[in-house]
Amino acid sequence: MHNSRYSQIKKFATAAKATFKIEKPFKLHKLDNGPASTVTLTPEDAIKIYENLVMLRRIENAANTMYKEKLIRGFCHLYTGQEAVAVGIRSMLRKVDTVVTSYRCHGWAQLMSGDMFGVLAEIAGCKSGRSRGKGGSMHIYAKNFYGGNAIVGSQIPLGAGIAFAHKYRNDGGVCFAVYGDGAANQGQAFEAYNIAKLWNLPCVFVCENNIYGMGTSIKRSSASTEFYKRGDYIPGVWVDGMDVLASREAARYAIEHCNSGKGPLIMEMETYRFTGHSMSDPGTSYRTREEVKQMRENRDPIKVFREKVTSTGLVTAAKLKELSNRIREEVNDAFERIKVEKESGPEDLAADIYQKNLHPSIRGIIPNAPLAHANFYKQENDFIPLEKKEKKN
Questions:
Q1: Per-residue confidence (pLDDT) for residue 30, from 0 to 100
Q2: What pLDDT score does 6 carry?
Q3: What range(s) does the Dehydrogenase E1 component domain occupy (predicted)?
Q4: Is residue 196 within 8 Å of residue 263, measured between CB atoms?
Q5: Under a CB-based contact definition with an 8 Å cutoff, are residues 150 and 138 in contact?
Q6: pLDDT attached to residue 387
Q7: What was the pLDDT predicted at 393?
Q8: Residue 32 backbone dihedrals phi, psi, to 5 degrees
Q9: Is the distance from CB of 191 to CB of 220 less than 8 angstroms?
Q10: Predicted pLDDT at 372
């Protein structure tokens, strides 16, 4: 078995494993020890991480184009530049762990579902989307993924609630509640911190600090910009969120911390979005084009990771190019399919309100004109539309 594996990886690697040092040290709050400062990867690990990074970038590139071609209506918030946070954390999650995040959720939806077409179709409001087109860009779900949430900061107390469910069930799971620096000043965040620590809930509060809350710099909006210390009585870790390996080790540490019965943890992931806050924001009125250019050139998480794994012989540049080309073709094909997909119909209006509806109809806004309730999803189908499930089978 070992010889067979070795013969396989020789096709795209010259090293069986490689060890990397975390370049920017972790900063700790109320902790004696932090995440590991070195990371060892196999070629298989590197390929999976790179594949996920590139897939997230391609999905957001497609969403960008879809918005400009008016295939997306409403809001659209891209994750471009922040991929290392989600990919690093996701690589350490177990089947029992859960995630809830903000409206900037396309990347997390892809990582938790593995359903690239379903994610893009949902963003476009198509019936074949993850939420049958009713959720759109900000409300996408998957098994153990409690969505995108459009209300700023609402996912923080939701995360504490999901963590409470883990503790109540004693299933060993940990919830990662992901929010931005713009939501970090809200009162509900501190209420969630309080109850999470009071009950020692297995919750990791992940602050994705991309330096700007909409168009306002953290220096102008926050009296304290050390978000990992915001929990006061809750331990915290600062992480370089542009380094996927740092995110990976921080997630590993966070899960171990919560599972040891020590209660919640706050992780500040310092990252950077290359685009504006949303598609309606050019992102250049509150920061210079030169700043964005420098970040793209020197701190792009995909570029940085690619240089690490190719320079150590862990994966060849040719193999990574092959992966990138394949992913580009897959996303392009999905994009073309979405152009002819059907939108949600009137029958979806009152559908899937309940998992088990006790009444055959739902009261609408017009008296004596109830709406028929229908179930298009089943829990065991992991939110896959029934007709899509049948096609798979």
A1: 98
A2: 52
A3: 52-346
A4: yes
A5: yes
A6: 46
A7: 44
A8: -85, -35
A9: no
A10: 87
- Determine the longest span between alpha carbons in the chain, in angstroms: 72
Q: How many residues are there in the chain? A: 393
* Distance in angstroms (rounded) separating the CA atoms of residues 133 and 342: 9
Cβ(386)–Cβ(347) below 8 Å: no
pLDDT at 356: 82
Secondary structure element (H or E) that encloses residue 348, with its range: none
pLDDT score of 3 more than 70: no
Distance (Å, rounded) from C-alpha 62 to C-alpha 120?
A: 8
| Residue 104 and residue 180 in contact, taking contact as beta carbons nearer than 8 Å | yes
Predicted local distance difference test score (pLDDT) of residue 242: 98
C-beta separation of 215 from 138 below 8 A: no
pLDDT digits (tens, 9 = 90+) for 193-247: 999 999 999 999 999 999 999 999 999 999 999 999 999 999 999 999 999 999 9
Q: What does the alpha-carbon distance between residue 87 and residue 56 come to, in Å, rounded to a whole number?
A: 9
The pair of three-digit structure tokens given for residue 8, joined into one six-digit string: 């396989």
Output the average pLDDT for the chain: 92
* 267 strand-pairing partners: 206, 237
The residues near 77 (Cβ < 8 Å, ≥ 6 apart) are 103, 104, 137, 138, 277, 278, 279
Higher pLDDT: 14 or 162? It is 162
Tell which residue, 314, 243, 319, has the closest CA to residue 88. 243
Strand intervals (E) in the chain: 18-21, 27-29, 38-41, 98-100, 175-180, 203-209, 212-213, 216-217, 236-240, 265-270, 361-362, 371-372
